[in-house]
Design a protein that fits this description.
The protein has five helices and no strands. The chain is mainly alpha-helical and about 170 residues long.
Protein backbone atom coordinates (compact mmCIF):
# COMPACT_ATOMS: atom_id res chain seq x y z
CA UNK A 1 0.00 0.00 0.00
CA UNK A 2 2.82 2.40 0.74
CA UNK A 3 4.39 1.97 -2.69
CA UNK A 4 1.02 2.60 -4.33
CA UNK A 5 0.44 5.64 -2.11
CA UNK A 6 3.81 6.96 -3.27
CA UNK A 7 2.82 6.43 -6.91
CA UNK A 8 -0.53 8.16 -6.32
CA UNK A 9 1.25 11.08 -4.66
CA UNK A 10 3.43 11.54 -7.74
CA UNK A 11 0.38 11.31 -10.00
CA UNK A 12 -1.25 14.06 -7.94
CA UNK A 13 1.91 16.16 -8.35
CA UNK A 14 1.89 15.59 -12.13
CA UNK A 15 -1.76 16.71 -12.28
CA UNK A 16 -0.92 19.78 -10.22
CA UNK A 17 2.01 20.66 -12.46
CA UNK A 18 -0.17 20.19 -15.57
CA UNK A 19 -2.63 22.72 -14.16
CA UNK A 20 0.10 25.17 -13.19
CA UNK A 21 1.63 25.02 -16.67
CA UNK A 22 -1.68 25.28 -18.54
CA UNK A 23 -3.22 28.51 -19.79
CA UNK A 24 -6.08 30.11 -17.87
CA UNK A 25 -9.35 28.52 -19.05
CA UNK A 26 -7.67 25.41 -20.48
CA UNK A 27 -10.41 22.73 -20.61
CA UNK A 28 -8.01 20.00 -19.49
CA UNK A 29 -7.42 21.83 -16.19
CA UNK A 30 -10.73 20.58 -14.78
CA UNK A 31 -9.78 16.97 -15.60
CA UNK A 32 -6.38 17.47 -14.03
CA UNK A 33 -7.94 18.94 -10.89
CA UNK A 34 -10.22 15.90 -10.64
CA UNK A 35 -7.18 13.62 -11.12
CA UNK A 36 -5.29 15.56 -8.44
CA UNK A 37 -8.11 15.14 -5.91
CA UNK A 38 -8.68 11.46 -6.73
CA UNK A 39 -5.00 10.68 -6.32
CA UNK A 40 -4.80 12.57 -3.04
CA UNK A 41 -7.76 10.54 -1.75
CA UNK A 42 -6.04 7.32 -2.85
CA UNK A 43 -2.90 8.37 -0.98
CA UNK A 44 -4.97 8.86 2.18
CA UNK A 45 -6.78 5.54 1.76
CA UNK A 46 -3.62 3.56 1.11
CA UNK A 47 -1.51 4.95 3.91
CA UNK A 48 -4.44 4.59 6.31
CA UNK A 49 -4.70 0.89 5.39
CA UNK A 50 -0.96 0.45 5.90
CA UNK A 51 -1.06 2.18 9.28
CA UNK A 52 -4.07 0.11 10.41
CA UNK A 53 -2.26 -3.09 9.49
CA UNK A 54 0.89 -2.05 11.35
CA UNK A 55 -1.07 -0.83 14.40
CA UNK A 56 -2.28 -4.41 14.81
CA UNK A 57 1.29 -5.33 15.72
CA UNK A 58 2.54 -2.01 17.03
CA UNK A 59 5.03 -3.40 19.56
CA UNK A 60 6.82 -5.34 16.83
CA UNK A 61 7.09 -2.31 14.48
CA UNK A 62 7.81 0.39 17.08
CA UNK A 63 11.58 -0.28 17.31
CA UNK A 64 12.23 0.01 13.56
CA UNK A 65 13.71 3.23 12.21
CA UNK A 66 14.63 4.48 8.75
CA UNK A 67 18.34 4.91 8.23
CA UNK A 68 19.46 8.18 9.77
CA UNK A 69 16.13 8.76 11.52
CA UNK A 70 15.11 8.53 15.14
CA UNK A 71 11.40 8.47 14.25
CA UNK A 72 9.29 5.31 14.35
CA UNK A 73 7.05 4.30 11.48
CA UNK A 74 4.11 5.63 13.50
CA UNK A 75 5.78 9.03 13.88
CA UNK A 76 6.13 9.16 10.08
CA UNK A 77 2.41 8.41 9.74
CA UNK A 78 1.86 11.37 12.08
CA UNK A 79 3.97 13.53 9.76
CA UNK A 80 1.75 12.44 6.87
CA UNK A 81 -1.33 13.33 8.90
CA UNK A 82 0.03 16.87 9.30
CA UNK A 83 1.83 17.48 6.03
CA UNK A 84 -0.47 15.92 3.43
CA UNK A 85 -3.42 18.23 4.22
CA UNK A 86 -1.02 21.19 4.21
CA UNK A 87 0.37 20.22 0.79
CA UNK A 88 -3.17 19.74 -0.55
CA UNK A 89 -4.23 23.15 0.81
CA UNK A 90 -1.22 24.93 -0.69
CA UNK A 91 -1.63 23.08 -3.97
CA UNK A 92 -5.33 23.97 -4.22
CA UNK A 93 -4.44 27.63 -3.63
CA UNK A 94 -1.73 27.51 -6.29
CA UNK A 95 -4.02 25.81 -8.80
CA UNK A 96 -6.75 28.42 -8.25
CA UNK A 97 -4.36 31.34 -8.69
CA UNK A 98 -4.39 33.13 -12.05
CA UNK A 99 -1.77 31.87 -14.48
CA UNK A 100 -0.63 32.60 -17.99
CA UNK A 101 -0.07 30.25 -20.91
CA UNK A 102 3.23 28.44 -20.78
CA UNK A 103 3.98 29.39 -17.18
CA UNK A 104 6.48 27.04 -15.62
CA UNK A 105 4.44 26.36 -12.50
CA UNK A 106 6.23 25.70 -9.24
CA UNK A 107 9.29 23.55 -9.73
CA UNK A 108 10.31 23.48 -6.08
CA UNK A 109 7.61 22.12 -3.81
CA UNK A 110 8.87 21.95 -0.20
CA UNK A 111 5.49 20.79 1.14
CA UNK A 112 5.47 17.90 -1.36
CA UNK A 113 9.00 16.96 -0.30
CA UNK A 114 7.86 16.65 3.34
CA UNK A 115 4.99 14.33 2.38
CA UNK A 116 7.21 12.35 0.04
CA UNK A 117 9.90 12.11 2.71
CA UNK A 118 7.46 10.64 5.23
CA UNK A 119 6.19 8.06 2.71
CA UNK A 120 9.76 7.18 1.77
CA UNK A 121 10.75 6.70 5.42
CA UNK A 122 7.73 4.44 5.98
CA UNK A 123 8.72 2.39 2.96
CA UNK A 124 12.30 2.06 4.19
CA UNK A 125 11.12 0.96 7.63
CA UNK A 126 8.81 -1.64 6.10
CA UNK A 127 11.66 -2.92 3.91
CA UNK A 128 13.90 -3.22 6.97
CA UNK A 129 11.17 -5.01 8.94
CA UNK A 130 10.51 -7.43 6.10
CA UNK A 131 14.23 -8.17 5.72
CA UNK A 132 14.64 -8.82 9.45
CA UNK A 133 11.53 -10.98 9.50
CA UNK A 134 12.81 -13.06 6.59
CA UNK A 135 16.15 -13.46 8.36
CA UNK A 136 14.44 -14.52 11.60
CA UNK A 137 12.29 -17.02 9.68
CA UNK A 138 15.37 -18.50 7.97
CA UNK A 139 17.12 -18.87 11.33
CA UNK A 140 14.03 -20.50 12.87
CA UNK A 141 13.79 -22.92 9.96
CA UNK A 142 17.46 -23.84 10.36
CA UNK A 143 16.96 -24.48 14.09
CA UNK A 144 13.93 -26.63 13.33
CA UNK A 145 15.84 -28.54 10.69
CA UNK A 146 18.70 -29.23 13.12
CA UNK A 147 16.23 -30.40 15.78
CA UNK A 148 14.55 -32.76 13.32
CA UNK A 149 17.94 -34.27 12.40
CA UNK A 150 18.89 -34.71 16.06
CA UNK A 151 15.55 -36.39 16.79
CA UNK A 152 15.88 -38.65 13.75
CA UNK A 153 19.35 -39.75 14.82
CA UNK A 154 18.19 -40.23 18.41
CA UNK A 155 15.21 -42.35 17.34
CA UNK A 156 17.40 -44.34 14.95
CA UNK A 157 19.87 -45.07 17.76
CA UNK A 158 17.06 -45.99 20.15
CA UNK A 159 15.58 -48.23 17.49
CA UNK A 160 18.90 -49.98 17.00
CA UNK A 161 19.40 -50.45 20.73
CA UNK A 162 15.86 -51.60 21.36
CA UNK A 163 15.83 -53.74 18.25
CA UNK A 164 19.17 -55.43 19.13
CA UNK A 165 17.96 -56.82 22.49
CA UNK A 166 15.13 -59.01 21.09
CA UNK A 167 17.51 -60.26 18.39
CA UNK A 168 20.01 -61.41 21.08
CA UNK A 169 17.36 -63.75 22.52
CA UNK A 170 16.70 -65.30 19.12
CA UNK A 171 20.36 -65.97 18.41
Amino acid sequence: WVLNADRDLYQALVAKQAILTSAEGDPSAEEQLKAFRENVEQVRDRYTKARTLLEGNREAWEPYRAEGSSESVFAHFGILDRELPEWVRLSEEQMKAPRSAGSSGQIEDPAFKKVRGALNAIGEILDEGAARSAEENRAAMQRTERLVWVLLILFALLGLLWGAEPLAGIL
